[in-house]
Amino acid sequence: xxxxxxxxxxxxxxxxxxxxxxxxxxxxxxxxxxxxxxxxxxxxxxxxxxxxxxxxxxxxxxxxxxxxxxxxxxxxxxxxxxxxxxxxxxxxxxxxxxxxxxxxxxxxxxxxxxxxxxxxxxxxxxxxxxxxxxxxxxxxxxxxxxxxxxxxxxxxxxxxxxxxxxxxxxxxxxxxxxxxxxxxxxxxxxxxxxxxxxxxxxxxxx
Length: 206
Known about the structure:
- By secondary structure, the protein is an alpha/beta fold.
- 25% of the residues lie in helices and 29% in strands.
- It has 6 helices and 12 strands.
- The strands form 3 sheets. It has a 7-stranded mixed beta sheet with strand order 2-1-3-4-12-11-10. A 3-stranded mixed beta sheet has the order 5-6-9. It has a two-stranded antiparallel ribbon with strand order 7-8.
- Strand 1, helix 1 and strand 2 form a beta-alpha-beta unit.
């Protein structure tokens, strides 16, 4: 009498946090859930310690960095990113993942994680926001619709960083190891493929 092997245990979906200090947190939570992750907001160090990966949303990078200090999150964020926690930053989040900002505001700090130099508000002010199709390396089935709102661009990257997308001759998506960053907001479009790419990065790191 043959016996069947026991069924493989179900793989739990990764737990991905969204830094919920300022910015479009709700939209990222929805996009992550659509990409088969368990998504929750992160405001305290103990919540950060529980997640498998983290999204840093758009908003105002100076405000987010100041609030991260106020909530006791800046050093825990730096430590977890250095330790290899998957992290994805959009717009302001891209700025916070940079090693250097060309035009920082007074007292502005970054978390780091990607060897890149960025320029704030490089594509213009709020009234110059726009949408454009962007081909992103690693995202299949055609370009994604990029929403650019007071968007930065990446001036240059180091040897370990990989350029994933450009727009108008400027770098708008970068990956380095477990860190991903885009100048644009895919969470505002209903297209969750960039979030799916990030959730796959989180799974691979588990």
